[in-house]
Amino acid sequence: MRGCHIRSKKLLLPVFSFYSHHQFRVHQRKHQESLFLVFVSIFSKEEMLAVFDKSVAKSPDALNSPDNHQELSALKNGFLANHFATLYPGSVTISLGSSGVMAYSLEKQNPLLPRLFVVVDDIFCLFQGHIENIAVLKQQYGLNKTANEGIIVIEAYRTLRDRGPYPPDQVIRDIQGKFAFIIYDSSSKATFIASDADGSVPFFWGIDAEGNLVLADDVKTVKKGCGKSFAPFPKGCFFTSSGGLKSYEHPLNELKAMPRVDSSGQVCGATFSVDVDAKKESSGMKKIGSAANWSTNY
């Protein structure tokens, strides 16, 4: 596979098996001796989709439209992934087991906002857009010259998760450019999702009939899985499994949800904006050992 790099390390080995519609599933296999760490980086452009089980990513209640009569589950029997594969016959579907599914296609790409699918260790990333200060971030995270945007945001996430008390809002503010990305960490069953401050990349999210989170850059795909319970992903915000939705532009302010009304006057999900009058209580920096997972505090 193009862009595939392998190096030896004592870790769990992701084993990829391809199925019909170019599906591949991730299996964890332990070895007592040195294991191979597989880096998969596909430098291509595609439509993207992610569906996460509600146990992995709990959607904001405000996304659920009271007038929604959608009774389908996006995950049951692979409903939305199969629909995606039908729309894009050359698409790739990645099963995340009980946690959900990710998918991408090589069709209908936007040359101004290229998309990447990258896997490093047990971390999966769908990235769309471009980073303007890519050279600065490569140096900041100690990456080589061939590292692309997907690898950079994965390394930013790993830095947040493993190595220090870096506020996630600062980590994302350091990324300059037009982007939207979806990260899934299979080792901790955690998600990390963000969009740039201007909402430059088309990016939507919604909640299906069973409370599962659906994300895609195609509004029709989200509507197929969520009915009326969807909205554009809030610009300048990030979402984590542990902390929910927050603003990285105004990290000290709460977010407020407002019902979103479409052109026909029907309520369709909700939009989220910074509440300038509601400040979060600050308890100062928590003193936690260096081995702790800092991302669970946000």
Automatic annotation (TrEMBL):
SUPFAM superfamilies registered for this protein in UniProt: N-terminal nucleophile aminohydrolases (Ntn hydrolases)
Family matches, as Pfam families: DUF3700
Domain DUF3700 stretches: 49-274
Name the record gives this protein: DNA repair family protein
